[in-house]
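Lab notebook, design round three. We kept the backbone fixed and only want residue identities now. Task for the bench partner: fill in a sequence for the structure below.
Input structure tokens:
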């Protein structure tokens, strides 16, 4: 039995027991279909899948070599795969080809129930077991306590039966097992027993077109990301208030960003790190830092993280919030519930002598908070905070979560968060603890491969040790590239 506290954890754990090549996006959507749609975004429910499996036979195509599999394709089908559009291929042949299956029978029960009804996860698991026994053997076979437990478990489908014949009763399960010998069905794939249909296409460009369409339309987990950069920081002039910006080319959509600041004396402090917009769509990233009260010309570099989306299947949404004028302004931007928070930024609209960033970080699953402060001399200002979210236009699923780590206390705290294996950061931020004269952000740097997010802050002119919390928003299965062609084998202009 698979039991988890929260749908994302449940689906991520469950997928490890299923072997499907070419991405799990469609598989995750299938998991979601077993539950009330209003519950799949919540964390206050237990989710479970109980499966009783009887294996009768393993059936497999003997070769696993791609070229040999391509030679097994019927000539007429091979012609269609080579010439048809991806839409027509999937509509006619599906997305995957079976190369190895298990035949037999399976009794399957999917359920979810509010945590408040159970004393623990163990209590919930025992209740699911009781619900299963009730469906297989009938209420008469259960004790009073088992009946009570079974009544607390909610399922929208009841017992799903694949293979064999089940007649509810005390011997129902035993008789069902025997019946699978003469009435077997395909119940699961063997390890590596399903391959994407594009592996049967000999022409590389056509195969990649089909794969790209699958990944985008079916919300497959292999999204493609790239870190774009402004001119190298060493090439930038040393000035009191350095600025930099970076734009992304056609086919890419900005989802987050960051800044690297270099100083040579008492310090430079970050004042702006936010998305550049065109008609509400993020097309680049803008950053600015400044010296403060004492001259220290410095340099700055901008970073933009962008998602490869030439087919426009990802809807990117920007939410903004503007503070009032204050010595320590703060604003939180919140996305509509259907969007996934992937990044954010902040723009301090300061007056001299200056107001600098203290926070730019994901403050909830749908909100980004930015705050700033004047330092040693009064300079009330405004701050504009940006939250960046994405939503798949065709309902595809993207698994995400936020990681954070606290560093310090130090006068110049810094630290790096590292992504989980199989996951990559799509955005990140940082927050400085309050108290004393203060510490302000200097650097917010996403790594080129999406595996790290680094942040650095410092006191200024007067010593003050603070904590720095570094945040990274990670998504499952994302691939970072230098060029789209390196993954797709395609010229983007030909798509």
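Proposed sequence:
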């Amino acid at each position: 039995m698979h039991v988890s506290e929260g749908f994302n954890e449940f689906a991520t754990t469950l997928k490890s027991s299923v072997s499907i090549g070419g991405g799990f996006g469609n598989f995750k959507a299938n998991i979601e279909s077993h539950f009330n749609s209003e519950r799949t975004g919540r964390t206050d429910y237990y989710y479970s899948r109980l499966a009783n499996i009887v294996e009768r036979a393993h059936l497999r195509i003997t070769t696993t070599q791609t070229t040999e599999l391509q030679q097994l394709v019927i000539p007429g089908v091979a012609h269609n795969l080579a010439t048809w559009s991806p839409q027509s291929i999937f509509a006619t042949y599906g997305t995957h080809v079976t190369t190895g299956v298990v035949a037999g029978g399976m009794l399957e029960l999917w359920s979810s129930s509010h945590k408040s009804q159970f004393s623990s996860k163990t209590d919930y698991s025992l209740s699911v077991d009781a619900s299963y026994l009730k469906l297989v053997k009938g209420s008469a076979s259960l004790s009073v306590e088992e009946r009570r437990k079974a009544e607390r478990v909610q399922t929208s489908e009841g017992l799903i039966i694949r293979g064999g014949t089940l007649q509810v009763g005390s011997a129902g399960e035993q008789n069902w097992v025997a019946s699978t010998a003469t009435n077997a069905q395909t119940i699961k794939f063997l390890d590596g027993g399903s391959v994407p249909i594009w592996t049967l296409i000999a022409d590389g460009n056509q195969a990649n077109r089909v794969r790209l369409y699958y990944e985008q339309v079916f919300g497959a987990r292999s999204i493609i990301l790239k870190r774009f950069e402004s001119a190298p920081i060493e090439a930038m002039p040393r000035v009191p208030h350095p600025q930099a910006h970076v734009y992304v080319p056609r086919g890419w959509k900005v989802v987050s960003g960051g800044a690297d600041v270099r100083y040579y004396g008492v310090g430079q402090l970050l004042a702006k790190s936010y998305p550049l917009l065109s008609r509400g769509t993020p097309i680049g990233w803008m950053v600015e830092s400044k010296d403060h009260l004492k001259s220290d010309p410095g340099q700055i570099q901008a970073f933009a993280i962008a998602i490869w989306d030439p087919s426009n299947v990802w809807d990117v949404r920007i939410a903004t919030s503007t503070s009032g004028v204050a010595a320590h302004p703060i604003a939180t931007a919140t996305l509509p519930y259907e969007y996934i928070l992937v990044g954010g930024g902040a723009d301090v609209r300061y007056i001299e002598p200056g107001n600098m960033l203290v926070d730019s970080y994901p403050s909830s699953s749908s909100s980004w908070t930015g705050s700033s402060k004047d330092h040693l001399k009064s300079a009330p200002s405004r701050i504009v905070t940006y939250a960046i979210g994405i939503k798949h236009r065709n309902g595809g699923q993207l698994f995400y979560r936020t990681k954070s780590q606290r560093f310090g206390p130090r006068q110049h705290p810094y630290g790096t968060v590292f992504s989980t294996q199989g996951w990559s950061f799509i955005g990140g931020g940082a927050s400085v603890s309050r108290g004393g004269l203060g510490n302000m952000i200097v650097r917010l740097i996403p790594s080129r491969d999406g595996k790290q997010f680094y942040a650095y802050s410092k006191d200024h002119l007067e010593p003050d040790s603070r904590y720095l919390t570094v945040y990274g928003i990670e998504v499952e299965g994302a691939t970072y590239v230098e060029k789209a062609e390196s993954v797709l084998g395609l010229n983007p202009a030909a798509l």
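Keep this in mind before ordering anything: The longest strand covers residues 45-60.
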